[in-house]
Amino acid sequence: MASNQQARPGVGELAKDVAEKRIGVVMGEIGGRVQMRPVRGGREWDAKPDDVVALTPREELSARLAARNGNRRVGL
């Protein structure tokens, strides 16, 4: 793999679906599609593998912080 290419995020990792402009957790891959779910839970969606990319460190920090703050609001 060239140094300018990123590996696709694995199961359990945060990733961005660039087509849907959504960040989620990679849940798996079935039938040539990547299953993702919102960071705080919810309904999964399918993404094309080429549309799923790793987050930048800033995006990952922001997503984790938003999820943690949201969980505190509901007492988790």
Q: Could you please describe the fold and organization of this structure?
A:
With 76 residues, this protein is α+β, with helices and mostly antiparallel strands. It has one helix and five strands, in the order βββββα. It has a five-stranded antiparallel β-sheet with strand order 4-3-2-1-5, with no helix packed on it. A hairpin with a 4-residue loop joins β1 (14-17) and β2. The chain is globular and about 35 Å long. The protein starts with 13 loop residues before the first strand and ends with a helix.
List the helices and strands and how they pair.
Blueprint lengths: L13 E4 L4 E9 L2 E6 L6 E3 L4 E3 L2 H17 L3
Antiparallel strand pairs: 1-2, 1-5, 2-3, 3-4
Instruction: Provide mean pLDDT, rounded.
Output: 87
- Which percent range fits the helix content? 10-25%
Overall structural class, as computed from helix and strand content, comes to alpha+beta
What is the beta-strand fraction?
Answer: 25-35%
- Using DSSP, what is the number of strands? 5
Main pleated sheet? 5 strands, antiparallel
Numbering strands along the chain, what is their spatial order in the largest sheet? Answer: 4-3-2-1-5
End-to-end separation:
41 Å
Please compute the radius of gyration using only Cα atoms: 13 Å
Order of helices and strands: EEEEEH
How many H/I helical runs? 1
Spans of at least 5 consecutive residues whose pLDDT stays below 50 are none
Query: Which overall shape is indicated by the principal axes computed on the Cα atoms?
Result: globular
